[in-house]
Design brief:
Layout: H1 2-28, H2 37-48, H3 54-65, H4 70-91, E1 101-102, E2 105-106, H5 108-111, H6 114-134, H7 141-155, H8 160-169, H9 177-201, H10 208-235, H11 238-241, H12 247-250, H13 256-260, H14 262-279, H15 288-299
Antiparallel strand pairs: 1-2
Helix pairs in contact: 1-4, 2-6, 3-4, 3-9, 3-15, 4-6, 4-9, 7-9, 8-9, 9-10, 10-14, 10-15, 14-15
The chain binds geranylgeranyl diphosphate.
């Protein structure tokens, strides 16, 4: 009975926060009628075309834990999602992963053109940092500066972009599990971790130890996300994923599935989920939303 009620409440919570993030993203993206129209239309195409919004949801959950105002968290979450959207647009380009399908639609460079897609990524990244400078997000300016630093580091060469460089370099090679972990902690994990910490920074309800617990939780969840992504790429269909399935094997990319097999990779994702939950155990009921997101990430089908 309790589990049913918790699932129901998670759906309602997710629905409310998805509406919140969509409306902020709609608002902060330049309108399609504003010059240069084609670039602004392409930016909106890349960001507003669906997506699970896992990173914003993590920011909202951590923000609630830190007793942050949801309006502030929504802006921080939007900044993270803009960076994520930029990374997908660039990742899909012919010079990187060369894909034609994303979120069930043609990728940005297919719908528009390569030069526009490149600029879309650049402009989305700039817009993310503009938001962090434009809105009051944290109780004090020192914390707000920390947030700028955090998002920059998570997206840069020692975070997501660095992970992508390792990924491009590893095509056709076989990586050990620790090497895979290093790549994914950067490529996928850094931004997921930043999402939770950005949300937590919007409030001042967490002490240092509690903040570190959220960080630890997000590290495990970020890795679990990638392990599940590898399994879904191997086992799911293009129709379900809304992006081309089976690409990792076709492109000779080292993955958790190629390193240990799908069944063991699934088991690893469950282990990582358990580690994530253990990290936030002391929060008790206050961490309900974080726990539910960890479950969603591990059990998701797309
Ligand atoms: C181009 C600097 C640069 C980085 C690209 C994130 C990334 C790095 C590449 C995406 C390629 C990929 C398949 C990564 C695996 C995990 C991942 C980030 C999947 C996509 O994220 P989701 O599932 O996407 O959250 P939605 O569409 O739901 O937002």
């Amino acid at each position: 009975m309790r589990i049913v009620a918790e699932i129901g409440s998670f759906q309602a919570w997710t629905h409310a926060n998805l509406q919140r993030i969509e409306s902020v993203l709609q608002r902060v993206l330049p309108g399609p009628e504003i010059a240069p129209q084609r670039l602004h239309q392409a930016m909106r195409y890349a960001v507003l075309g669906g997506g699970k919004r896992v990173r914003p949801l993590l920011a909202f959950a951590a923000g609630e834990l830190a007793q942050a105002e949801s309006e502030r968290v929504a802006i921080a979450a939007a900044a993270v999602e803009l960076i994520h959207a930029y990374s997908l647009v660039h990742d899909d380009l012919p010079c990187m992963d060369d894909d034609v399908l994303r979120r069930g639609r043609p990728t940005c460079h297919v719908e528009y053109d390569e030069a526009t897609a490149l600029l879309v990524g650049d402009a989305l990244q700039s817009l993310a940092f503009q938001l962090l400078g434009e809105y009051r997000l944290a109780e004090d300016m020192q914390t707000q500066l920390e947030m700028v630093k955090l998002l920059a580091a998570a997206s840069g060469s020692r975070g997501m972009a660095g992970g992508q460089a390792i990924d491009l370099d590893s095509v056709g090679k076989s990586l050990t599990v620790p090497e895979l972990e290093f790549m994914h902690i950067h490529k996928t994990g850094a931004l997921i971790r930043a999402a939770a910490l950005m949300g937590a920074h919007c409030g001042n309800g967490l002490d240092e130890k509690e903040f570190a617990r959220v960080d630890q939780f997000a590290k495990y969840v970020g890795l679990a996300f990638q392990v599940v992504d590898d399994v879904l790429d191997a086992e799911s269909s293009t129709a379900t994923l809304g992006k081309t399935a089976g690409k990792d094997a076709k492109n000779s990319k080292p993955t958790y599935v190629s390193a240990m097999g799908a069944a063991q990779a699934r088991e690893l994702s469950r282990e990582l989920r358990n580690n994530a939950l253990a990290a936030i155990e002391d929060f008790g009921e206050r961490a309900l939303r974080l726990r539910q997101i960890a479950d969603f990430i591990v059990l998701r089908k797309f």
